[in-house]
Amino acid sequence: MRVGLLGLGRIGAFHAATLAAHPRVSELVLADADEALAVEVAARVGAKVGDAFDTEAVVVATPTVTHAELILRACAAGVPVFCEKPVALGVEETRRVAEAVERHGTPAHIGFQRRFDAGYAAARRALRAGDLGDLHRVHMLTADPHPPAATYIALSGGIFRDCHIHDFDILRWVTGREVDTVYATGSNRGEAFFSDAGDVDNSAALLTLDDGTLVTLQGSRYNGAGYDVRMELAGSRRTLVAGLEDRVPLTSAEPGAAFPAQAPWPDFGSRFEAAYIAEIDAFLRLAAEGGPSPCTVQDALAALLIAEAAELSRREGRPVRVAEVTA
Questions:
Q1: How confident is the model at residue 327 (pLDDT cuts 50, 70, 90)?
Q2: Which domains does the chain have, with CATH numbers?
């Protein structure tokens, strides 16, 4: 299969290596606004530089502001498309893309890689099989060891749209429920560029699912101990945690406790390396064989609506129903 890849930043370069090594890919075509970077990455992975849309499938790993335009271009070209999250920073633009994808019948897969992580997948299976009993509560955490650059934060859309949108997607995917209400807050404990952009660097939220289940969420751009992403599912029979393994950056204060056993994860790329590879494999299978998308544009829209509700709640200091931002 001839595959195109647009965007060769950190995640794009990782996808380039994954695609170049994949047995389904006979030729990989790279493109980037920085042509010199495209040439350098192409030489490193054994690809070529050219028109990424003159292919049988295209992967989009460009800056967020370009995602919608490139997905629409894939629709017009009749090319299956994988795009990193989010589809767009705005609800209306995301809806426009969803409508185009449906109208053209374009196979589209949005990159929420946690759906392909072994721990999250196991938690979903256990919950759906009834192993946990009745779900009583959920706790989620996403914490980066170091903040992104100020230029990134200014265009990111804020911590709920940029970072916690992963939590919102995986919450829906694991539980099979929708979020009804969000009560969110945040604070600035680090660099001034967060507040300058109208953003926060530490976040918290209480979400209520449509069946009444309570969900707590915490986040930080300054988790100095290491990269920490977890989801705790507490049921009437047992509690199961995705992300609780021997590289989680936690230290016990209890005498005699020795945890974790290995160095903490330094970043999201190393933590979710296997998941990123698995989601690209799933997209290539979708492009070659058809079938349902593992994560649709409609799924991305649903996660964005929760993020919009969270941001509105943070700004106005009140609980917000997701239904408020769907109109």
A1: low
A2: 2-113+275-295 (3.40.50.720), 115-267+303-325 (3.30.360.10)
